[in-house]
């Protein structure tokens, strides 16, 4: 992140992230961001061309941080889908608004730093022996579980640990 942004742009992105984490994606407007920074909204355009650029920066942060979490899990338990899933879930639940911003709309691939999406996917790819279809299936399962949990779609008595375990078992070689 540090190489992409000027110090002022980094400050703006930090405040945007705080606003997002506190209030959700709908609250992230350039006017609200400028108000938090004590400046007029047009001043933001010196650093980010539009709201989408701010969102892209936040999505890049999410991908970097989740990649680091998965890499750490992989380092501690190489090849463990359970460890990767736990790292993924823990990160997403700790940052639900950021996670939703990054995953509930098309990924702005062309605007992201080169190689970032691949870096975020690599721990799972390695755990799946390089099988792209299996890696995508595991990710879809993990994302579905996480997004349902974030949005409170499971009943209070749901045994999510058992559901995760059962779902991940389906991806294990027989």
Give an overview in words:
The protein has 174 residues and is mainly α. The protein has one domain (7-169): Tetracycline Repressor, domain 2 (Orthogonal Bundle). It has helices spanning 7-23, 30-37, 51-76, 81-94, 96-103, 116-127, 132-150, 160-169. α1 (7-23) crosses α2 (30-37) and α3 (51-76) packs across α5 (96-103). The longest helix has 26 residues, at 51-76. The relative contact order is 0.11.
Short recap of the structure:
With 174 residues, this protein is mainly α. Helices cover 66% and strands 0% of the residues. It has a single domain (7-169), classed as Tetracycline Repressor, domain 2.
CA-atom Rg in angstroms:
18 Å
Helicity range: 55-70%
Q: For the record, what CATH class applies?
A: Mainly Alpha
Strand count: 0
Q: Output mean pLDDT.
A: 95
What is the helix tally? 8
Total count of domains: 1
Strand composition percent: under 5%
Order of helices and strands: HHHHHHHH
Multimeric state of these chains? single chain
Structural class, judged by helices and strands? mainly alpha
- Per CATH, the architecture is Orthogonal Bundle
Strand count, sense and barrel status of the largest sheet are:
none
Distance between the termini: 41 Å
CATH topology annotation: Tetracycline Repressor, domain 2
Low-confidence stretches: none
User: What gross morphology would you assign?
Assistant: globular
Instruction: Give the CATH superfamily.
Output: Tetracycline Repressor, domain 2
């Amino acid at each position: 992140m540090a190489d992409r942004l000027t110090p002022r742009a980094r400050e703006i992105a930090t405040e945007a992230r705080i606003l997002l984490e506190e209030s959700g994606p709908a609250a992230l407007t350039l006017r609200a961001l400028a108000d938090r920074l004590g400046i007029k909204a047009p001043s933001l355009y010196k650093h980010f061309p539009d709201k989408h650029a701010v969102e892209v920066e936040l999505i890049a942060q999410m991908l970097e941080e989740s990649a680091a979490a998965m890499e750490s899990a992989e380092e501690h338990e190489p090849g463990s889908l359970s460890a990767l899933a736990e790292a993924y879930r823990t990160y997403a639940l700790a940052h639900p608004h950021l996670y939703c911003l990054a995953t509930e709309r098309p990924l702005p691939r062309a605007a992201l730093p080169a190689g970032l999406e691949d870096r975020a996917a690599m721990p799972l790819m390695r755990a799946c022996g390089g099988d792209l279809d299996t890696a995508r299936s595991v990710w879809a399962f993990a994302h579905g579980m996480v997004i349902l949990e974030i949005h409170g779609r499971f009943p209070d008595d749901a045994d999510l640990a058992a559901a995760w375990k059962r779902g991940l078992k389906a991806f294990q070689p027989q």
